[in-house]
Amino acid sequence: MYRPRSMAANLLWMRVQLVSTYELGHQPLQLASAAAxxxxxxxxxxxxxxxxxxxxxxxxxxxxxxxxxVPMHTASRLALRLVGQLRTxxxxxxxxxYGLYANVASYSADNLTTAGAxxxxxxxxxxxxxxxxxxxxxxxxxxxxxxKSRQGVVTSGGPGAHVDGSHHPxxxxxxPMEGGITGQTRKRQVSLDIKRHDSLVPDRDGxxxxxxxxxxxxxxxxxxxxxxxxxxxxxxxxxxxxxxxVYDGRIRKVGADTVLADIExxxxxxxxxxxxxxxxxxxAPGYAMEIVRELHxxxxxxxxxxxxxxxxxxxxxxxxxxxxxxxxxxxxSAFESASDVILGKLMKGHTYKDMEAAITxxxxxxxxxxxxxxxxxxxxxxxxxxxxxxMAAVFDLIPNIDTVQWSIRLLVPPGSLLLGTPANSDVFGxxxxxxxxxxxxxxxxxxxxxxxxxxxLASKAALQGIDATSAYTLIRERALDMLYTSHMTxxxxxxxxxxxxxxxxxxxxxxxxxxxxxxxxxxxxxAEMRPKLTEAWxxxxxxxxxxxxxxxxxxRC
Length: 557
Known about the structure:
This protein has two domains: about 15-200, Rossmann fold; about 215-535, pyruvate-formate lyase- activating enzyme (Alpha-Beta Horseshoe). Helix content is about 30%, strand content about 15%. The chain contains 17 helices and 17 strands. The two termini are about 40 Å apart. Mean pLDDT is about 85; it is low at about 1-10, about 145-185, about 490-495 and about 495-510.
């Protein structure tokens, strides 16, 4: 285990620039967490969050090492763009990408046709990255990286770790980059390690204040919101999720004292609400409830939200009255689809009926469900899109679904468990390195067109401040119009799991109204008073033009 050294023990002075491009609108925990380790090791650390701050190329040039956080898809897309901008600007400083998606980005680096900016990254540090990041900075400080060659040393550890500079972490039955390896001509440090290590309280010194980040909104009231994690990883293996590709069905607890100390610092900074950002808050239900008890005892006024699987909501109904009493206002849950066929393809572990049961459980405690969706997959039919729109209405979720969710297209990053499923061997194509996802096309071309239409609509809605209910109406009208106008053209040979669309009455009646909420599922809270965060963009959405501009130094150098 890597043991951080004291300030006095470190004789090397060195400046490390930590950069975040996007963390769901929250003050970036991944910067604060990395800063704690590096400062404890004696390094001078500066933090930059390009989600709200301007890129200053002269400050970046002063750094001795640059480490960019990549906890999710959007952040990774932006990070690779930033790397390209820095190298174009002549900055030869060693660069590391660290976080969950570093493993994904590493696949692109060694492929002749897709490498791009990733080829000039010196280290990709995934999983429990803290010891590896501190160790990499130590090596930079010792001069193992030359300013011209930037050659690294490969480390390994944990399931799927690299064993040398020419092989990627393997997914059983899948090698998406086969034939494109160029590690023989260039080595770099790649670490995928999920071993447990000591917890340090995140060091938020130098981060922008909470006032500049997402807030809790209830009607006209807003509260500053902080973001913490009690666990990393996940005990489940949903095939489309990037977490199990790294953590292999395991979780790593952050120490309770560490979590509570971080929350105390956030409260001191003005936070009135906390988001628990674990992939699933009830992966360790006993531990989660311990944190909640201590949180409520220390800060009775504090409210919170958490991400919880449908499967866990149904499995632990007895916990939600206690969560509500302790201040839980809403739960984010990955409903994904109204189709049991698609839910099975993704191995979500729940069904349509389970989602209905989950809403009943949550609303019986006055906890609001806020759901994430993956409307567009290779197995989606036009009927599935309308079923999903109808489900939102019947479940009284229209105000609870952020507009961007209606445009989400299934991402299949390198190493995805979907690629290792024999039934999918003909479903997914080559790697699109720019988008960090393997290609696929719908069996119904109109759905690919609709996804692009809804993506544009979601961006406009965000820019123009269109509320979720109004945006839903626009989305529903556009979907019905496009699907009806296409006459639901049959395909001669639908892919496995895809059904032909029946040209029945539902499509003849283009003016079909929005279904009314089911009486037993109706929310007790008025739509305008339902709690939510002010940030609407999510990790699996593509970057907006504004986000891309934030990492474009051409006009700022």
